[in-house]
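Contributing new records

If you add data, match the layout below exactly. Sequence lines come first and carry their own label; structure lines follow with theirs. Keep one chain per record. Anything else will be rejected by the validation script.
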Amino acid sequence: MPRTTIARVDLDALRHNYTLACQRAGTARAMAVVKADGYGHGIREVARALADLAPKYAVACLEEALAIRDAGLNQPVVLLQGVHQAGDLAECQALTLEPVLHSDTQLAWLTESRHRPRFWLKVNTGMNRLGFRPGELDGVMARLADAGVLPGLLGFVTHLACADDPDSPMTARQTDTFVRATAPWPRLARSLGNSAAHFLPDQPLFDWSRPGIMLYGGSPLIDATGPALGLKPVMTLEAPLLNTRVVRAGESVGYGAGWVASQDGRMGMVAIGYGDGYPRHAGTDTPAAIGGRRIRLIGRVSMDMLAVDLTGVPEARPGDRVELWGPTVGVDEVAACAGTIAYELMTGLTARVPRQYLRRDGGVD
């Protein structure tokens, strides 16, 4: 019989979070960002759960878009990294995929191809990862017009570097740059808003917003949690308690003997570790929960196990379910203790942890 370490995915919570994104987007429409295997939740299941709500999906690359098509879904899919080779344009055209073009190389592939999918242009407004600088757009548009592909252009995309910090002035600078850069083409769509932008006062989201982490219940803002923003946790990571034992004052627990008991107490071992994607750097005092009661980790996380302090829950027994993150212990809390972000925790869960999907009719898959 397999161990019962599992990630439960609440699809109703996902739908709630998408609906909240739409409400906060105002007049903008929200394309659901389901890249990185639906942020670790399962791209096919996540996309299907949003199929009657989301008019468009966004992913990083072609293989993720193909997973959506394999799930039987027909909404347009935006490829945020564009295409990685010229031959991908044929599939984009055939499957209604919308690549975001960001380089001269990609422009050459498009203008020299007989395949003409609809597409977007990436504008570099200051993040300096991908995209054309504002001063290059006139030349890019002329090049597209000369090649006869300009009618396929849907609009412009940019990405905000510091929207997670409401006090950063960079978001306003990028927004202003984007507005000025795209002003000569007012009939084309514009997309700027990531999850964090949905929560910034008076932040314009233009025509299409791109909610990502907020769909899964994680906070897109520094110094805020998902529940504080009205988001529901979608994933509950659980593992069974393997054993319990008394640890004596002066005894250590785990690799490196880094945690030593200051007094007699009760501890237990939980069947999850960094081999499952639980963060190795989540050390002593990282929260967990049993039966809705918070407990804490002690010592170093191992590949397959971690230790918890059970002194405050004397009734805990082997086989009890331990929540590593979920409704009692927020994923943002665990991420902070591990010195990372919720994005990494969710996407980092390995295939060793099966996903169980809670359906809207109350059943499970």
